[in-house]
UniProtKB/TrEMBL annotation:
Residues 13-54 form the ATPase AAA-type core domain. Transmembrane segments: none annotated. It comes from Mobilicoccus caccae. This is ATPase AAA-type core domain-containing protein. Pfam families: AAA_21 (PF13304). Gene3D superfamilies: P-loop containing nucleotide triphosphate hydrolases (3.40.50.300).
């Protein structure tokens, strides 16, 4: 409720510039989407917004241009679509082979996609067609326990630029 009140107070004077620091932290999904709608409307009414967020889906929804920061430095800047095109592929196929060391599958799927990333619980195959990458995996005689094909997101870009490990 405090977050909602703070945001409402910032909008009372109809500002030309709105600076928001993590505006949806702590909001439930309905309130988050309501706020996104209001910010979208404000943007289209001419209000300039500067937004800091760790939620890449929020940045993808709300930002025309964005800056990815890492270690206090600018790693990349551009529109969400430009950054995805530059640092990722159109789709990502997520493959799970059960509770195993997924690194042992990496040599077998190499070449099925533009880039393969090994995570402890799955493999990520970056390709223009996730379905084609999955078909190539099947052609090599591999049958993942789970397959998910999705479009690339800003989160894929962010993790590629900043890494997946926590930094102290």
């Amino acid at each position: 409720m405090k977050r909602r009140l703070t945001i409402a107070r910032s909008l009372v004077n109809r500002p030309d510039l709105l600076i928001l620091d993590e505006p949806t932290t702590g909001l439930d999904p309905q309130a988050r989407h309501t706020l996104w709608d209001q910010l979208y409307r404000l943007k289209h009414s001419g209000v300039t917004q500067i937004l800091t967020t760790h939620y890449m889906d929020e940045a993808e929804q709300l930002c025309d241009r964005l800056v990815v920061m890492h270690d206090g430095q600018i790693s990349a800047l551009g529109s969400p679509a430009e950054l995805i095109r530059q640092y990722s592929t159109r789709e990502v196929a997520e493959l799970r082979f059960g509770v195993v060391d997924h690194a042992e599958y990496e040599p077998q799927v190499r070449g099925c996609a533009e880039r393969v990333e090994v995570l402890p619980d799955r493999l990520l195959l970056y390709a223009d067609s996730g379905d084609a990458a999955v078909s190539a995996v099947h052609e090599r005689g591999l049958t993942p326990a789970q397959v998910l094909v999705r479009r690339s997101t800003l989160e894929d870009v962010f993790l590629r630029l900043t890494g997946r490990t926590l930094v102290d």
